[in-house]
């Protein structure tokens, strides 16, 4: 039973990290990017490649994975979001980020291969530690540090305050001289870095697998919608809840109904509380 | 004049399609065109959802799988007459569409897209889990149709007939009040509600219709494939349907039809594209969204309109009050007029009611 | 306050009325105990400074908002629980401050859309093109064409709506609203951005609509226009009703002059 809880929390941490990345990008652009899960996938695949493939030391692999994530985040903003936001059609960003996600996944699949590959050990530890193995506590610790770091960033730094001002009212922020385009780009770089970091930390759990992105895009979104769009604490709770639910579902019914049960949770929450557990109620736009 | 020209080209295209088996080179080409037809049966219905009502469903492959497995089980395992099973698959697809649409169509755009994607993944999951019914990972073999549709030609004509019928139906919807209502739902839900359109009901109706065509398309697709497994219905196929419509152009029927034909045939004819596969679809989607967000079909229309451009004249708005008064009084009275009766003196011969020229291709 | 002296005159039947409605957004009170009644065959002006709650009141009447207190009644029957989409079917039509037209459709298509409440054809019948559907389509098209010509857009009837000029868009919105066969028409700043000549045409149209027995609510900044065409005028300020009466009474009211018209 404890094993179920620990593995549920560990996978839930990956969902929560994806939800955090969603939040960071959403706050400045009001865009929910289909590429969000792919940021984590990049962290896992490139971390494995840098360390196991190129033989770089672990810290260099970490920096590399975070950089690749940040680069793709920035690329998403420049190619997929910036041009599209200028137009009035609100759905175009869904199409452009969907296109980018599809291209990335396919490109990684062609280059890296379509089989999941193992992720190298990050910290010397033998494989007999059971539930204390790093593949469980590394993602959990990482997402906790990420959440705390994000909150501190928003509250204590100038850039964090710029993020918040842009998030509350982008027009007003621009009128007050805040370079909202650069803030948005910065937020995508940050989200990419966070995604890369999370994917790197969770690599031993998820393996380096090209199709991980789409699964995380969906499950991270479920965690986000359940916890409440825009709330980082909600993302954490939603991720943990979803991870535990999946783990227990697997424990009781086998792995066959995981996705069905996850979506069932989403629908239930949306029916009862459309804004999610900790989300803000939206005012009707007329 | 324009009408007769497009009528003629329609007749020619129809003739070419009906006689295709005699002049096409080989069975492989015939199979390819049949496949395009089966896809189109689904895409035609999906087009009303995506291109007209503006609901971005990326997971219609789930509904395709429902129709395909339905056909394989009912006609194969249970041995029912495939021609009888065909409408049953439509009904099955419609029911699945209702099941998916009821909770998800009230959600905002991204939520809805994610729900349809999740549905596609769930269908795959269930097709693996319910091995007794679906054969699990091994899959099922699918029977063909009885005579006269048992040959590749017969099958082709069956698909052609169903495709033509579905196209005619979506065409009928697109150019009448329902089509206007769908576009209102897509472009401005506020405007739609202001004229009394029940936005959710309209969305749900058209979504269930797309489920029916997806079920039919799935049955035809399964019969063409002769063997189906969960891997036949990867998520990328749903993406492919969706891209066909976006590239073809929103609010067009011909555009998505051409999009389906070209995107199905291209990777088969150009070997390097087949290797790139989904990457190519993604790239195409990105280019279209960034450069011609209204779709290539729409671009052609706009260019055509520019060719026969009516010079833009500024025109003072000059109300025809007598006609307005007549229109208000003749609009069968929900409330009887209480003001003065319309003055009889003002006469102006009523113009013949101008019939709307349908702008759709 | 002058509002207190007004009788809360509400007709037992035959009117659209807001009864001391209130609406708050967060901590901001947009409307506070405001009453207004609109009778068939009258033009009722609603004026006030920016942010005085005019559009909020219109949104309450047309169902986009629900009142926090008070009630909206049609012919004495409570409406507040009826959704936006139901109101057009009850004969309440509206236009928008920023025209909400369908740019990809023609002028005639936009006007026809207004007649949606009269569409009896089901989805399947439409798809199959049954004769009754075709007849209905022709009827609605003729009706809409009459209205389009009536408001003066005959020259543009087949033009795509996003190619229209500003005044044309406003007039098309009125034609679309009229295609609903409304009993009450709520116009949200219809004269905004119009030239003098166009406002004169608008006045003709609004009077013609009134003569057709329709009750028109005119939310407007153009006070000249309002005082010229309206039979009664209601003035709001910061969510409260400050004066209600004939144009002459309102124009000369000290409070209205102070908060809105200026010295």
From TrEMBL, chain A:
<dbReference type="InterPro" id="IPR001851">
    <property type="entry name" value="ABC_transp_permease"/>
</dbReference>
<dbReference type="InterPro" id="IPR052157">
    <property type="entry name" value="BCAA_transport_permease"/>
</dbReference>
<keyword id="KW-0812">Transmembrane</keyword>
<feature type="transmembrane region" description="Helical">
    <location>
        <begin position="92"/>
        <end position="112"/>
    </location>
</feature>
<keyword id="KW-0813">Transport</keyword>
<keyword id="KW-0472">Membrane</keyword>
<feature type="transmembrane region" description="Helical">
    <location>
        <begin position="183"/>
        <end position="201"/>
    </location>
</feature>
<keyword id="KW-1003">Cell membrane</keyword>
<dbReference type="Pfam" id="PF02653">
    <property type="entry name" value="BPD_transp_2"/>
</dbReference>
<protein>
    <submittedName>
        <fullName>High-affinity branched-chain amino acid transport system permease protein LivH</fullName>
    </submittedName>
</protein>
<feature type="transmembrane region" description="Helical">
    <location>
        <begin position="233"/>
        <end position="254"/>
    </location>
</feature>
<comment type="similarity">
    <text>Belongs to the binding-protein-dependent transport system permease family. LivHM subfamily.</text>
</comment>
<feature type="transmembrane region" description="Helical">
    <location>
        <begin position="136"/>
        <end position="154"/>
    </location>
</feature>
<keyword id="KW-1133">Transmembrane helix</keyword>
<feature type="transmembrane region" description="Helical">
    <location>
        <begin position="207"/>
        <end position="226"/>
    </location>
</feature>
UniProtKB/TrEMBL annotation, chain B:
<keyword id="KW-1133">Transmembrane helix</keyword>
<feature type="region of interest" description="Disordered">
    <location>
        <begin position="330"/>
        <end position="361"/>
    </location>
</feature>
<feature type="transmembrane region" description="Helical">
    <location>
        <begin position="61"/>
        <end position="78"/>
    </location>
</feature>
<keyword id="KW-1003">Cell membrane</keyword>
<feature type="transmembrane region" description="Helical">
    <location>
        <begin position="84"/>
        <end position="102"/>
    </location>
</feature>
<protein>
    <recommendedName>
        <fullName>High-affinity branched-chain amino acid transport system permease protein LivH</fullName>
    </recommendedName>
</protein>
<feature type="transmembrane region" description="Helical">
    <location>
        <begin position="32"/>
        <end position="54"/>
    </location>
</feature>
<keyword id="KW-0812">Transmembrane</keyword>
<feature type="transmembrane region" description="Helical">
    <location>
        <begin position="109"/>
        <end position="133"/>
    </location>
</feature>
<feature type="transmembrane region" description="Helical">
    <location>
        <begin position="204"/>
        <end position="228"/>
    </location>
</feature>
<dbReference type="InterPro" id="IPR001851">
    <property type="entry name" value="ABC_transp_permease"/>
</dbReference>
<feature type="transmembrane region" description="Helical">
    <location>
        <begin position="273"/>
        <end position="292"/>
    </location>
</feature>
<dbReference type="InterPro" id="IPR043428">
    <property type="entry name" value="LivM-like"/>
</dbReference>
<dbReference type="Pfam" id="PF02653">
    <property type="entry name" value="BPD_transp_2"/>
</dbReference>
<feature type="transmembrane region" description="Helical">
    <location>
        <begin position="153"/>
        <end position="174"/>
    </location>
</feature>
TrEMBL record, chain C:
<dbReference type="InterPro" id="IPR032823">
    <property type="entry name" value="BCA_ABC_TP_C"/>
</dbReference>
<protein>
    <submittedName>
        <fullName>Lipopolysaccharide export system ATP-binding protein LptB</fullName>
    </submittedName>
</protein>
<dbReference type="InterPro" id="IPR027417">
    <property type="entry name" value="P-loop_NTPase"/>
</dbReference>
<keyword id="KW-0547">Nucleotide-binding</keyword>
<dbReference type="Pfam" id="PF12399">
    <property type="entry name" value="BCA_ABC_TP_C"/>
</dbReference>
<dbReference type="InterPro" id="IPR003593">
    <property type="entry name" value="AAA+_ATPase"/>
</dbReference>
<dbReference type="Pfam" id="PF00005">
    <property type="entry name" value="ABC_tran"/>
</dbReference>
<keyword id="KW-0813">Transport</keyword>
<keyword id="KW-0067">ATP-binding</keyword>
<feature type="domain" description="ABC transporter">
    <location>
        <begin position="16"/>
        <end position="263"/>
    </location>
</feature>
<dbReference type="GO" id="GO:0005524">
    <property type="term" value="F:ATP binding"/>
</dbReference>
<dbReference type="InterPro" id="IPR003439">
    <property type="entry name" value="ABC_transporter-like_ATP-bd"/>
</dbReference>
<dbReference type="InterPro" id="IPR051120">
    <property type="entry name" value="ABC_AA/LPS_Transport"/>
</dbReference>
């Amino acid at each position: 039973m404890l094993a179920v809880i620990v593995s549920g929390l560990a996978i839930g941490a990956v969902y929560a990290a994806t939800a955090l990345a969603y939040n960071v990008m959403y706050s400045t652009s009001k865009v929910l990017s289909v590429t969000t899960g792919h940021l984590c996938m990049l962290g896992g695949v490139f971390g494995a490649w840098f360390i196991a493939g190129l033989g770089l030391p672990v810290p260099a692999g970490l920096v590399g994975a975070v950089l690749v994530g940040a680069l793709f985040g920035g690329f998403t903003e420049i190619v997929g979001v910036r041009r599209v936001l200028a137009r009035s059609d609100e759905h175009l960003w869904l199409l452009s980020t969907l296109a980018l996600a599809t291209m990335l996944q396919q490109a990684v699949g062609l280059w890296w291969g379509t089989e999941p590959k193992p992720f190298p050990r990050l910290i010397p530890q033998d494989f007999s530690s059971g539930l204390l193995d790093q593949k469980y506590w590394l993602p959990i610790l990482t997402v906790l540090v990420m959440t705390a770091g994000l909150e501190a960033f928003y509250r204590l730094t100038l850039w964090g305050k710029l993020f918040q001002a842009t998030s509350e009212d982008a027009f007003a922020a621009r009128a007050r001289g805040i370079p909202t385009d650069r803030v948005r780009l910065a937020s995508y770089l940050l989200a990419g870095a966070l995604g890369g970091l999370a994917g790197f930390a969770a690599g031993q759990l998820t393996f380096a697998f090209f199709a991980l992105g789409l699964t995380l895009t969906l499950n991270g979104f479920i965690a986000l919608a359940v916890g409440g769009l825009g709330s980082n604490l909600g993302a954490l709770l939603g991720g943990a809840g979803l991870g535990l639910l999946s783990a227990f579902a697997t424990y009781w019914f086998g792995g066959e109904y995981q996705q069905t049960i996850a979506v069932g949770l989403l629908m239930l929450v949306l029916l009862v509380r459309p804004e999610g557990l900790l989300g803000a109620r939206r005012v009707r736009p007329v | 004049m324009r009408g007769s020209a497009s009528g003629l080209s329609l007749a020619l295209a129809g003739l070419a399609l009906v006689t295709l088996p005699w002049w096409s080179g080989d069975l492989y080409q015939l199979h390819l065109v049949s496949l395009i037809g089966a896809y189109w049966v689904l895409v035609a219905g999906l087009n009303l959802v995506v291109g007209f009502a503006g609901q971005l469903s990326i997971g219609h492959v789930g509904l395709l799988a429902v129709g395909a497995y339905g056909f394989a089980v009912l006609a194969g395992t249970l041995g029912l007459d495939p021609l009888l099973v065909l409408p049953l698959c439509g009904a099955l697809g419609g029911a699945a569409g209702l099941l998916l649409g009821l909770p998800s169509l009230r959600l905002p755009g991204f939520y809805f897209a994610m729900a349809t994607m999740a549905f596609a993944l769930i269908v795959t999951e269930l097709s693996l889990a319910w091995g007794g019914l679906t054969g699990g990972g091994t899959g099922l073999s699918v029977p063909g149709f009885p005579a006269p549709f048992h040959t590749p030609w017969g099958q082709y004509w069956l698909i052609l007939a169903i495709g033509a019928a579905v196209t005619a139906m979506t065409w009928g919807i697109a150019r009448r009040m329902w089509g206007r209502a769908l576009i209102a739902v897509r472009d401005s839900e506020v405007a739609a509600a202001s004229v009394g359109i029940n936005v959710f009901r309209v969305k749900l109706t058209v979504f269930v219709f797309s489920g029916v065509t997806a079920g039919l398309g799935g049955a035809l697709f399964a019969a063409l494939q002769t063997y189906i497994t969960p891997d036949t219905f990867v998520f990328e196929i749903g993406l492919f349907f969706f891209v066909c419509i976006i590239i073809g152009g929103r609010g067009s029927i011909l555009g998505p039809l051409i999009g389906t034909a070209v995107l199905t045939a291209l990777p088969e004819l150009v070997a390097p594209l087949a290797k790139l596969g989904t990457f190519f679809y993604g790239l195409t989607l990105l280019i279209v969204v960034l450069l011609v967000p209204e779709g290539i079909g729409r671009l052609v229309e706009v260019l055509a309109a520019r060719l026969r451009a009516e010079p833009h004249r500024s025109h003072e708005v000059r109300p025809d009050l007598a006609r307005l008064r007549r229109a208000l009084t003749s609009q069968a009275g929900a409330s009887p007029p209480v003001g003065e009766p319309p003055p009889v003196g003002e006469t102006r011969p009523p113009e013949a009611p101008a019939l709307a020229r349908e702008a759709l291709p | 306050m002058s509002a207190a002296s007004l009788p809360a005159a509400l007709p037992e039947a035959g009117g659209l009325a807001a009864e001391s409605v209130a609406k708050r957004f967060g901590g901001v009170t947009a409307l506070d105990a405001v009453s207004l009644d609109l009778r068939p065959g009258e033009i009722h002006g609603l004026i006030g400074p920016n942010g005085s709650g005019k559009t909020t009141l219109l949104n309450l009447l047309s169902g986009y908002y629900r009142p926090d207190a008070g009630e909206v009644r049609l012919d004495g029957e409570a409406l507040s629980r009826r959704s936006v989409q139901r109101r057009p079917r009850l004969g309440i039509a509206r236009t928008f401050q920023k025209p909400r037209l369908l740019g990809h459709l023609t002028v005639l298509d936009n006007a026809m859309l207004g007649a949606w409440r009269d569409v009896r054809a089901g989805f399947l019948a439409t798809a199959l093109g049954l004769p009754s559907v075709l007849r209905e389509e022709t009827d609605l098209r003729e009706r809409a064409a009459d209205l389009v010509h009536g408001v003066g857009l005959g020259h543009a009837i087949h033009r795509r709506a996003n190619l229209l000029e500003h005044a044309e868009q406003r007039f098309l919105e009125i034609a679309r609203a009229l295609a609903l066969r409304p009993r009450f028409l709520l116009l949200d700043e219809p004269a905004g951005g119009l030239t003098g000549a166009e406002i004169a045409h608008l006045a003709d149209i609004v009077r013609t609509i009134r003569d057709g027995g329709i009750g028109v609510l005119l939310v407007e900044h153009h006070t000249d226009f309002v005082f010229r065409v309206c039979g009664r005028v209601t003035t709001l300020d910061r969510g409260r009703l400050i004066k209600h009466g004939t144009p002459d009474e309102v124009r000369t009211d000290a409070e209205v002059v102070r908060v809105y018209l200026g010295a």
